[in-house]
Amino acid sequence: MSFVHHSSGSHCYTLDDCSAVVRAIQRMHMDSNGWDDIGYNFLVGEDGRVYEGRGWTTLPAHSPVYNYFSHGTCIMGDYMTAAPEEGYIIPDYELFGHRDGRCTDCPGDVLYSIIQTWPHYSFREIPIIC
């Protein structure tokens, strides 16, 4: 099981800019949320790179209850009214939007509509935790 998030923050298009956004998200997760580290397993920038958060083997902190048996990937940027520019995000697993399991607008209306068209998006209903 995997959840797609958006950072609802700054977009980034270069290694330097995306690295700075990852560090800002990490600071926010640690300072504001009180987590040990960034909550996501991976983050994707519009520079075409995947940035490692907690990686594959460390328990994430992206969707309470689901953290124990899922991975969280954050697409950096705000996708409430626009889609990611590169279009390279292709899943090969059971995929959910963050809002499928949590009371949130994440991963943004436009990105959510897009991921629902991907071959492995799951329309299976799962409990929504608020």
UniProtKB/TrEMBL annotation:
<feature type="domain" description="Peptidoglycan recognition protein family">
    <location>
        <begin position="2"/>
        <end position="102"/>
    </location>
</feature>
<dbReference type="InterPro" id="IPR015510">
    <property type="entry name" value="PGRP"/>
</dbReference>
<dbReference type="Pfam" id="PF01510">
    <property type="entry name" value="Amidase_2"/>
</dbReference>
<dbReference type="InterPro" id="IPR036505">
    <property type="entry name" value="Amidase/PGRP_sf"/>
</dbReference>
<dbReference type="GO" id="GO:0009253">
    <property type="term" value="P:peptidoglycan catabolic process"/>
</dbReference>
<dbReference type="InterPro" id="IPR002502">
    <property type="entry name" value="Amidase_domain"/>
</dbReference>
<dbReference type="GO" id="GO:0008270">
    <property type="term" value="F:zinc ion binding"/>
</dbReference>
<dbReference type="GO" id="GO:0008745">
    <property type="term" value="F:N-acetylmuramoyl-L-alanine amidase activity"/>
</dbReference>
<dbReference type="InterPro" id="IPR006619">
    <property type="entry name" value="PGRP_domain_met/bac"/>
</dbReference>
<comment type="similarity">
    <text>Belongs to the N-acetylmuramoyl-L-alanine amidase 2 family.</text>
</comment>
<protein>
    <recommendedName>
        <fullName>Peptidoglycan recognition protein family domain-containing protein</fullName>
    </recommendedName>
</protein>
